[in-house]
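Cross-check.
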Amino acid sequence: MKLMPVFSALLMCSLSVALAGDWPTWRGPHGNGVADGNGYPLEWSATKNIVWKFPLAIRGASTPAVSGDRIFLTGTENGQNVVLCVGRDGKQLWSKTLGSSVDGKPGKDGTGANPSAATDGKFVFAYFKSGDFGCFTIDGEQKWHHNLQKLYGEDTLWWDLGTSPVLTSDAVIIACMHSGPSYLAAFAKDSGELKWKQDRNLGAPEEAAQSYATPVAVTEGGKQTIVVLGADHVTAHAADDGHELWRLSGMNPNNDKYFRSIASAAVADGIVVAPYSRGGTLTAIRMGGQGDISKSHVIWSNEGTSADVPTPAICNGRIYVCRDGGENRGMVDCLDLQTGKSIWSGQLKKNRHTFRSSPVVADGRVYLTRQDGTVFVVDAQADSFKVLAENTIADEHTTATPVFVDGKILLRTDTHLYLIGG
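Predicted model, tokenized:
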């Protein structure tokens, strides 16, 4: 990533650039599921608008990261963690290993390579279920390698590690939230030297202490801040030394033992939107303050209009949520960021499959990816629910979130990486 300041969602969504070539981290160039650029395809199929497809020997559920003409993916193969680099022409540039892999839980969503890579345009950072965490140059030269479980304790998560690395101006940050000593740690990008490590032990019961969410790096009061969701709290930490700036408690008022968190927080216009309660609640929090801000900074809290796994996207003062539980799977909500009130809500075509990918807003549309690889396109700017397209390449299992660069879409399935163009 060519590191840029964090702008408000309004500015981010009103950019009129023709092309935008980087997708540095899991939730895109601004960390909130919003793509730059325009001209993205509305419709495609196995025989329409496919620029190329690249067969994947590696297995993983991570979202690609993109810098310039290079695409970075993580996966496992033959008992090894693998970082793979593919050119924007669909040809492999390099493949490197990073320690021995650990198998995921049974099921197609379970892999040893669920965390997504991150890149700043000079380096690429990768993290695996095995605890292996390392850095390569974009040309494939390994710079450093740590195993965080050997350094700081074994992983006690009940399911597969999902938290992805987060970039600040001078560090790469990992959050570890599980039933045991939990922490945030920042490492120098070029050397891997530990810059700081901050404990985050908040007393959540049993599985509720476990989080698969990825932190968000934002700017608050002119300084970079790390927002973290998990263990029944939202906390904010100073990016320079990790100390806690403020916290919001009360996310689990009844001390439910099983309120592990998967969906991450989204941040825009100084507001943190936090999905919790296994998709039961969505809470908006005004950033700022000191100590426990639970009584002073909660703007609104909704029940129902939330998701367990997909992370919301925020654009132009609107929140887009894709529900994924039970009979409500495939229900899409468009909410007002300031009030939490519904602008519209609609049901995508019913199917036995649910949604694990997170919604992306691009070119005035919301793209929503179902587990079977079907991508629905919904009008993001309308005042009512309007499906514009339903696209299927093949029945290939999909957990990764699509990536939007230079008017084209990268879609990763279990077996292929596709480049989709108009």
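The first helix runs from residue 9 to 13. DSSP finds two helices and 33 strands in the chain. Passed to J.P. for a second look.
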